[in-house]
Amino acid sequence: MPSVMFTDPQVATIGLSESEAHARQIKTESRTLDNVPRELVNFETRGFVKLVMEAEIGRFIGAEIVACEAD
Questions:
Q1: Burial of 30 (0-12, 13-18, 19+ CB in 10 A)
Q2: Strand pairing of 28-33 and 10-15?
Q3: Is the CB of residue 30 less than 8 Å from the CB of residue 53?
Q4: DSSP string of 8-70, one letter each residue
Q5: Contact, 71 vs 4, CB < 8 A?
């Protein structure tokens, strides 16, 4: 279930976090993006995007976003 917290910067999540996947015995690979194009355009560089994939098949299973207008 997607969720958003209206803080400054905003926090949004969808799918499984890396720790939730590990609790379900799913091996993961994660990628973190520090320079999010939308943030650079808005001159608001606080934040990141973390993508979580199932390691063996590369399937996307979740994301965590901390950024201005992450909703």
A1: middle
A2: unpaired
A3: yes
A4: SSEEEEEE--HHHHHHTT--EEEEEESS-HHHHHTT---EEEEEEEETTTTEEEEEEEEETT-
A5: yes
Q: What is the pLDDT of residues 16-68, one digit of tens each?
A: 999 999 999 999 999 887 766 666 677 777 778 899 999 999 999 999 988 77
- Separation CA 31–CA 52 (nearest Å): 7
Contact 65, 12 (CB under 8 A): yes
What sign results for the dihedral spanned by CA atoms 23, 62, 56, 18?
negative
Distance of CA 54 to the CA centre of its chain: 14
- Which residue reads 């799913």 in tokens? 26
